[in-house]
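Please check this record.
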Amino acid sequence: MTTLLERKPATAAKAAPLRPEFRTGFAPLAGAAVLLTLAVALAVPAESWQGGWAETRDHTHAAAVLLGIPLALAAGCWQGGRERRRGTGDLLETAVRGALPRFLASAVPVALWVAVGHLVAAGCALLATWYCATGDSPHLVVPLTDSLLLAGAALAGQVVGRAVAWRLAAPVLATAGYAVLGFLSYDHDNAWSALSPLIGTPVDRVPVWWQPWVSVLWVGGLAAASVLALTARRRALALVPLACATAAAVVLVQSGGPTRANPVAGRQVCDTSTTPQVCVNARYEKLLPKITEALSGLTGRLEGVDHVPVRFEDRAGRPRADEAELPMVVPLGRSVVRGRLTEPEQYAWEAGMALVGRADCDRLDPAVARTDAAVEHYLAPNPQEKHFDDLAAQGSPADRAELKAGQRARARLLGMAQDERREWLSEYFATAGDCDPSGVPAL
């Protein structure tokens, strides 16, 4: 019993130095600064990532690397110079504890709070996407490894703060870190760009499973080597993490930041109840009902019409001969914001243009252009059509004459009986894409 009682105070004494650091020291402020910085950086362009899991992954990752790492370096550097600013450095040198335990007692709380601040910001971003997600699934490995990167940066920053006796070391280190990361991340022609922790991954691809962890080993190995070189009794121990970091760097440079295709992005989900069928990329499968509804007027008018494309497709590259390209839903923040179509009428018009357009024709006969415009007006009119008509009505005599001819063509198509119009549209779509005006039925 006496032995147990004697041990308790010793344990409490060992834990006591960390408690103030975790609760009331500079560390919580550093974590709050990281959280606030990342929250503001993500909130301003929220419409460009909210609703897409890959977009959320990329924006949170970019913010963590380009803003979080420089801020973690600065926080660690400021903490590292604390004893010098207080004038207690010489006193601590006489303490019983070694240099490494003293360093960790000061550095670990900052590193952990910085990591926690990032995790909270990333978690809030994931929650913001979860309620309006359009498909796919969350990518959790990247934010977890980003937190480790920020913790390693805070440790490395503390080493700089201990070694450099300059009050401006923290902001200068943050600026230099931002510049180096920006150079490595965006100079893709440079072989060393693979050493950047920023993983440049298109939304239809994902990093290979080991890539984020090797980046952590690269950055963390450098941080651990610098810590041991500064504080360890046997400084040769720093060679171990340095060797690990070097091996990780070699793997990253030789592999070039490998990615693989997202299996979900290679699939389509389709609504086969319409003509044409409506297919969207599986990454945005929850948009299918909204897109089908937006195109319901167009597909309803094409019911029973022959020679129309089989489906609207949403794959990379040009559509097949019997398909039409679905209007793009990416990048998020334009056609789609927070899981909703921003302008359904505009979207339907763009889909109609994919059916009636003759973009590959160098010259287009005016009569064919009026016919195309009349079909476009019938299927899904341009939301700006009235504005353009008003401009033509106020234009030259030739503009007014062309406007009247176009309006007569629209009226003829709308005035047809349903069966007659269906037969005429079947004949029209048989010539869709032809530049020769002789085969296009006139209005």
